[in-house]
Design the sequence.
């Protein structure tokens, strides 16, 4: 979920934001480099085509938009740490990435002097990003969840880059397996009454996300993938999202069974 950017500028921007987070949450100086090196090393791994440092900066960009809209965070430090750690452990074939990430956050942040209440809240938010659900009574969590999903409402070219990158991260799957699992993920999201939880997400991402996912769903369910070669086929008008949702909801029993075949074996994350 990230822009195509040069690695060094992205890392420099991340470093600047990271130091701000440390200052705002009282991280002890002697622990800062350890935490930073963990974040960089994990997000710079060779299998991180999308879930990388640029993805983190894109999430912070969304959070900045939320702030500019006049929405105040209750615990900004918890929000920041949830972003930094929500994908720090990422193995496409694993179903415990978020819980493993939350655990590592606790191991690194508590000894560094971050308040236990902030760490615990960050961990709850990290766990919520597994299926992008609402945390009752926690508007901060909704901001992070929406930030993680905001790529879905990006311009179609950027969305296409994201879809291609996520496919590369699941290179262990055959094209058929990928199409089954990806179509199931897309249908699950499109079936939601509301994708985004914040007013900013609803206003700026919802319609475009449904249009983007609807176009990709029609391709993958037909055995194709969203690529630079197929992107020109898309109608990028946001109103297409309603047509796409209607198309997906009309899947018949046989098609639904085919879509779910063997899908539980591998977690396919967006």
Sequence:
């Amino acid at each position: 979920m990230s822009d195509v950017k040069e690695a060094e500028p992205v890392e420099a921007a991340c470093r600047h934001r990271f130091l701000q987070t440390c200052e705002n949450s009282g991280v002890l100086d002697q622990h800062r480099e350890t935490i930073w090196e963990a974040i960089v090393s994990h997000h710079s791994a060779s299998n991180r085509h999308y879930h990388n440092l640029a993805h983190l900066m894109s999430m912070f960009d969304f959070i900045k938009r939320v702030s500019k809209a006049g929405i105040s965070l209750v615990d900004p430090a918890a929000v920041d740490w949830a972003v930094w750690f929500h994908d720090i452990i990422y193995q496409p074939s694993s179903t415990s990435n978020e819980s493993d990430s939350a655990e590592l956050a606790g191991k690194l942040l508590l000894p560094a002097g971050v308040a236990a209440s902030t760490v615990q809240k960050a961990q709850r938010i990290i766990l919520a990003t597994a299926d992008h659900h609402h945390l009752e009574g926690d508007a901060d969590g909704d901001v992070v969840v929406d930030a993680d999903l905001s790529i879905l409402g990006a311009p179609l070219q950027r969305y296409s880059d994201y879809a291609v990158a996520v496919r590369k991260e699941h290179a262990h799957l055959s094209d058929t397996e990928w199409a089954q699992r990806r179509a199931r993920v897309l249908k699950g999201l499109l079936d939601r009454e509301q994708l985004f939880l914040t007013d900013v997400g609803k206003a700026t991402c919802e319609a475009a996300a449904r249009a983007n996912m609807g176009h990709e769903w029609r391709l993958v369910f037909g055995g194709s993938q969203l690529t630079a070669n197929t992107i020109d086929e898309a109608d990028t008008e946001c109103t297409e999202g309603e047509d796409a949702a209607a198309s997906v909801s009309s899947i018949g029993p046989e098609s639904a069974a085919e879509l779910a075949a063997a899908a539980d074996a591998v977690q396919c994350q967006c």
